[in-house]
Design a protein that fits this description.
Layout (H helix, E strand, L loop, with lengths): L1 E5 H4 L7 E4 L37 H15 L1 H10 L4 E5 L5 H10 L5 H12 L4 E3 L13
Parallel strand pairs: 1-3, 1-4, 2-3
The chain binds zinc ion (ZN).
Length: about 140
């Protein structure tokens, strides 16, 4: 099982769950090993964030597509990472406890998080079960209209 959660809520997870960072940076006080296969920077170092797609006709769709493509290109790396983990693991990001996600929640009632694409990738391309914490209920579904 792969838990998708935030650094903040990861401290409340049952013991025995391996905690990993799926983020570029970690909040103060955290030092989880990094699952670099889920890094949002491509091989040129370009960050794949929703804001890079604002000028597109369908920004969220393009954002999802670009990130999913990146993860597909790392299929081997992702399988290697899964092979090196034992038992249940949690992938952690900042959302929605950082400023950008808080503003999105205020304005839209949802937030855009790369863990949506990570969860989609894991569910579609691996045998893993994916568990979402309660905050993810407010995570924007990037495939909806
Ligand atoms: Zn996030």
């Amino acid at each position: 099982m792969i838990y998708l959660t935030s650094f903040k809520k990861s401290t409340g997870l049952p013991t025995g769950i391996g905690k990993w960072s799926a983020a570029v940076y970690q909040p103060k006080g955290f030092n989880y090993p990094k699952a670099s296969c889920f890094d949002i920077r491509d091989f040129t170092g370009r960050w794949i964030r929703p804001r890079e797609f604002i000028a597109e006709k369908e920004p969220l769709f393009m954002y999802r597509r670009t990130l999913l493509k990146l993860y597909k290109s790392r299929a081997k790396k992702i399988l290697n990472w899964l092979g090196n983990t034992k038992g249940d693991v949690a992938l952690c990001c900042w959302c929605p406890y950082e400023k950008a996600a808080q503003l999105q929640l205020e304005e839209w009632g949802s937030f855009v998080c790369h863990l949506f694409v990570v969860g989609e990738y894991l569910a579609d391309y691996t045998e893993e079960l994916v568990w979402y914490d309660s905050d993810r209920l407010h995570m924007a579904v990037l495939t909806q209209k």
